[in-house]
Design brief:
The protein is an alpha+beta fold and about 325 residues long. It is about 55% helix and about 5% strand. The chain has 14 helices and four strands.
């Protein structure tokens, strides 16, 4: 089997979401930074990829058809068919996100709160752009909700980051220097959850679509499914920054403790840290995204009683339901 199963049109076919490996390879494929410059790395421009995806050339090999769909899916919004700006694409995470994460981690050890506040603003602004550019356009979110989500995430991240940094002043210099490396993680994780709640709180009252697991029959909207979806997504948002804001400081700390960094000139230490962060972005972030399937399956008895006697298109009683928990 190749990176992902491919159908006869060369398109990526991810059917087994229950397998972490398949989900990981799927997100790893979409996070490939080479898709930012496909002409350079794949000898295929984005324009050519879009054209080939729309009208497949029967003379092209399955590999080229698959490559065209990979390039297109990495740059084009699936709902609006608009081209997503490079800084907000998943394939742009490593390239555009690395400097932001490096800034947060580097200046977390610096005295004062100014740099901490600045990098939290930069990070949450970038996150807001990513969230909007990759939104579910079939369920349009108002500008007011977007602003509330951004403001809530920004306030949460700054409050946690500054609060933790100030509290570290009560510890010894050695402890403060050690723990300061990890201040960005709780700030970003808290902001992620805050943004999620602000953006999706209406689902708790309106519910989300649930379907029959057997054939995809739409059954209606469920508030109970919404609670599960938001809860699981919140947990995902908490572990999402781990490869970016926990793993790099641990690796750098290990290199320092081992004595390896002592032989490295000071001017090269920052590039090494940036390299570590970039690798974590490329290979670690897809792992976090793949921790749980996007579509959740559950017993029909776990949702409202009105769904317990529904039947699918074949007339069979619905025992299992499926719903999109979101990302």
């Amino acid at each position: 089997m190749s990176e992902l199963d491919r159908n006869k049109d060369g398109k990526v076919d991810v059917q087994d979401e229950d397998t972490v490996l398949i989900r990981y390879l799927h997100f790893l494929n979409h996070a490939d930074p080479r898709c930012l410059a496909p002409s350079l790395f794949f000898n295929m421009s984005l324009e050519d990829a879009i054209r080939i995806s729309a009208q497949p050339d029967p003379t092209l090999s399955a590999d080229r058809l698959w490559l065209a769909n990979k390039i297109k899916s990495a740059a084009v919004h699936p709902d609006t068919q608009e081209i997503v700006p490079p800084p907000f694409r998943m394939s742009g995470f490593a390239v555009y996100g690395t400097p932001i994460v490096a800034g947060m981690l580097h200046f977390a050890k610096a005295p004062g709160i100014g740099p901490t506040v600045f990098w939290q603003i930069v990070n949450q602004t970038h996150n807001a752009g990513v969230n909007y550019a990759n939104r579910n356009a079939s369920q349009e979110v108002s500008i007011q909700d977007l602003v509330k989500g951004y403001a809530g995430a920004l306030a949460t991240s700054i409050t946690i980051a500054v609060g933790l940094k100030q509290s570290l002043n009560l510890t010894s210099p050695g402890t403060r220097q050690l723990l300061a490396r990890f201040v960005p993680y709780p700030a970003v994780a808290g902001a992620n959850v805050s943004n999620l709640i602000m953006m999706r709180r209406s689902e708790l009252s309106t519910g989300i679509d649930i379907r029959a697991s057997s054939d995809g029959t739409l059954l209606g909207t469920s508030q109970e499914a919404a609670k599960v979806a938001i809860g699981k997504t919140a947990f995902t948002r908490i572990i999402l920054p781990v490869p970016l804001l926990v793993v790099p400081p641990v690796i750098m700390l290990g290199l320092e403790k081992s004595g390896i960094m002592k032989s490295v000139p000071r001017k090269l230490r920052m590039p090494i840290e940036v390299g570590v962060i970039s690798l974590c972005f490329t290979f670690g972030l897809p792992l976090s995204l793949s921790a749980f399937p996007q579509y959740c399956e559950a017993s029909v008895n776990s949702v409202e009683s009105r769904f317990h006697h529904y039947v699918d298109r074949s007339g069979n009683k619905v025992d299992r339901i499926v719903f999109n928990r979101g990302l």
